[in-house]
Amino acid sequence: MTRPPSTVRSSVRFRRRALLVVAILGAGFASAALWRPADPLASAELARIGRGTVEDTVTALGKLQPRAYVDVGAQVSGQLMKLHVAVGQSVREGDPLAEIDPALQRAKVEAGSAELARLRAQLAEQRARADFARAQFVRQTELRRVQASRGEAYDQARMETRTAEAQVEAIHAQIRQTESTLRADEAQLGYTRIAAPMSGTLISVDARQGQTINSTYEAPVLMRIADLSAMTVWTQVSEADVTRLREGMPLYFTTLGHPGRRWAGRLRQLLPAPPKPAAAGGASAGGSGGAGGGAASTVVLYTALFEVDNSGGDLRPEMTAQVFFVAAEAKNVLTVPIAALGTKAEKGDTHDVTVVAAGGALDTRRVRTGVRDRFNAEVLGGLAEGDRIVVSWKTDDGRPPRVGFRL
């Protein structure tokens, strides 16, 4: 018996719907199987609590300069006839450094000496005149006492005596002035021979033998002598960190030329104001306190100074130093990675930390921390040595995306 077409079509549609439902249910069961809870530790980055050193530091850059140095200049003009030293040479205080042509200064000294001799001869002559006038005045005084002389002769003798004595005093003043000028000329003559004002090393020589030196308006710098046995580090600290510094705090620094080596010291001085900016085009190139729209975007740096021993000679002027000011330090303490610290409590320096308990279960603990650096923090309570903690969670653990179906 043949079924009607309508019945056949209904049967086909029913079978298709049944197959679709079976397919959807199969996919759902497969997804449910994939969604089964996995091991939570599989997607966790773990760390174990151990001991170490934690330093809270302020980092800055500095330049090394000699602690004691002097710029040697010329105080007289003339040709540089001899240069006795070279860069890098060690000198002792008083050693000859250079000689400037002394012809002009020597001529001034000779002229001053001749003028001084002339004045002294004039003084001797004037003293003789004063003695004669004084004797005349004594005789006129005796004659007037016995009324044997006119009053005009007495007055004339008294005037000549006082005039002669005044001239003697005037010549004395001229002699003192000439002697002072002569001493200055002799000093200028001595300046033509330049000697080392201190013991040290010649770190720069800017003059050349045969060069003409002109010191009329400004004393030219010929060379620099420095004591390299001790160095001063001029460190530039940003205004955001300068309030954390205090005089006497410990510090250490490294240099590019000595990787892995540290030099230790203590902060000696923190200058109260930043360096004065160099003028450019009549305007301030930077710094704080200036007017204008660009001042707000300028970084303000303060200068911190400290010394370091350089008896070994390993440090050189103008070296760059990476300086670490130690604001706080904790040695041989329990440490926890900063990345593992969760929510911070409202009061106190405490954080939530996820700990792997016995059996692999996860537990949340409240941990109290102390000194911290960029990577670790000191543990003051809440954790024990050897505890395993969760530092972070993996963002891609290989599981398929969780896609749901709705029938």
TrEMBL record:
Residues 109-136 form a coiled coil. SUPFAM superfamilies: HlyD-like secretion proteins (SSF111369). Residues 332-392 form the Multidrug resistance protein MdtA-like C-terminal permuted SH3 domain. Keywords: Coiled coil, Transport. Pfam families: BSH_RND (PF25917), RND-MFP_C (PF25967). Its main location: other. Residues 70-221 form the Multidrug resistance protein MdtA-like barrel-sandwich hybrid domain. It is found in: Cell envelope. GO terms for biological process: xenobiotic detoxification by transmembrane export across the plasma membrane. One of its GO terms (molecular function) is efflux transmembrane transporter activity. The keyword Coiled coil applies. GO terms for cellular component: cell envelope; efflux pump complex; extrinsic component of membrane; macrolide transmembrane transporter complex. The keyword Transport applies. PANTHER family: MULTIDRUG RESISTANCE PROTEIN MDTA (PTHR30469), SLR1207 PROTEIN (PTHR30469:SF33). NCBIfam families: RND_mfp (TIGR01730). Belongs to the membrane fusion protein (MFP) (TC 8.A.1) family. This is Efflux RND transporter periplasmic adaptor subunit. It comes from Azospirillum doebereinerae.
